[in-house]
């Protein structure tokens, strides 16, 4: 038997191979995996239906010949005949028409199908979807009649509302609601940062915001990023407060306490600052409901109780009692 002829016949009969190469637009173009580069260099043909695909300039710079073509499933299968390998650089939509067509051909049983491989050439890193949020916010700010007119002051009330709704989802133990409310709070951050970019005197961007908090976290966690030691949560908190005090260099422990926060939280925060500073500050010797509430808030802080959370719990119980009374009244009515 002529082995060369047999090998030639085998090659001709081989249905070949299709490699569907997927990439993430959230990763810089050209940063592809090594298996992706190997597949591209070994391919008999490389196709891409999108002439504006961000990867094309980098592939061509690397010497990869790319045909800007959108073949049908039948044409692609025919192109693989004889054992050829064709790499398809997928567009952002993932080539659904092509893959559906290949599935129909395979289901017909009338065509010798090439080997089909899905090869991710780049992967999203954790947090990559935040880039999508920034891009969406950019477009909304530019094109939405309402969003384009918003200011920091005009949006301030929404930040407070979303924060309260987040706390409510936490206290309710509703995981689905928690995920949604975290997104709403995140939107407020991105929205304000986008508005800040337009300031003519002191502009800053979401990258400045993120860079600032990253630097702060590293500074205030020397036990993680440095040589300091902190073995317990209490030691970590003390270290955080000490580092913060060194950074701020405040003349009073009351500096930095926002006066517009809820009154019980404000009272507890002031009590906490005084206690941590070792100050023995007597409560004002004045009667009245406000001073009674102040005394309760200070007592709660001393006992390690969040007065806001405690009052909300009691208020919810009161709400349930009101509803029960309403149901009872309706039943007897």
Automatic annotation (TrEMBL):
Molecular function terms from GO: nucleoside triphosphate diphosphatase activity
- CDD domains (alphabetical): NTP-PPase_MazG_Nterm
User: Which Pfam families does the record associate with it?
Assistant: MazG
* Source superkingdom: Bacteria
Residue ranges of every copy of the NTP pyrophosphohydrolase MazG-like domain listed in the record: 150-225
State its Enzyme Commission number(s): 3.6.1.9
Keywords for this protein: Hydrolase
Record NCBIfam families: PRK12334.1-4
- This one is known as Nucleoside triphosphate pyrophosphohydrolase
Q: Which organism is it from?
A: Streptomyces thermoviolaceus subsp. thermoviolaceus
């Amino acid at each position: 038997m002529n082995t060369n002829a047999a090998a030639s016949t085998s090659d001709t009969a081989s249905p070949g191979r299709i490699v569907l190469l997927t990439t993430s637009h959230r990763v810089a173009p050209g940063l592809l995996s090594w298996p992706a580069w190997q597949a591209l260099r070994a391919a008999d043909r490389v196709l891409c239906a999108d002439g504006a695909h961000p990867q094309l300039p980098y592939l061509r710079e690397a010497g990869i010949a790319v045909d800007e073509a959108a073949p049908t499933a039948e044409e692609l299968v025919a192109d693989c005949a004889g054992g050829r390998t064709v790499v398809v650089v997928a567009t952002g939509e993932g080539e659904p028409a092509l893959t559906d067509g290949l599935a129909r051909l395979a289901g017909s049983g009338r065509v010798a199908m090439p080997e089909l491989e899905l090869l991710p050439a780049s992967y999203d890193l954790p947090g990559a979807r935040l880039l999508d949020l920034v891009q969406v916010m950019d477009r909304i700010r530019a094109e939405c009649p309402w969003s384009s007119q918003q200011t920091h002051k005009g949006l301030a009330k929404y930040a407070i509302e979303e924060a309260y709704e987040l706390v409510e989802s936490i206290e309710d133990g509703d995981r689905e609601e928690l995920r949604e409310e975290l997104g709403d709070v995140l939107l407020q951050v991105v929205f304000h940062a986008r508005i800040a970019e337009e300031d003519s005197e002191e502009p800053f961007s979401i990258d400045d915001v993120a860079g600032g908090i990253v630097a702060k976290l590293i500074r205030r966690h020397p036990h993680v990023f440095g040589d300091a030691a902190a073995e317990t949560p209490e030691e970590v908190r003390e270290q955080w407060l000490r580092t913060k005090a060194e950074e701020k260099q405040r003349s009073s422990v009351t500096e930095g306490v926002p006066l517009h926060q809820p009154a019980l939280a404000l009272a507890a925060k002031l009590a906490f600052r005084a206690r941590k500073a070792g100050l023995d500050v007597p409560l004002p010797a004045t009667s009245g409901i406000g001073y009674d509430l102040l005394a309760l808030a200070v007592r709660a802080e001393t006992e390690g109780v969040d007065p806001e959370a405690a009052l909300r719990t009691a208020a919810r119980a009161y709400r349930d009692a009101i509803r029960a009374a309403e149901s009872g009244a309706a039943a007897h009515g």
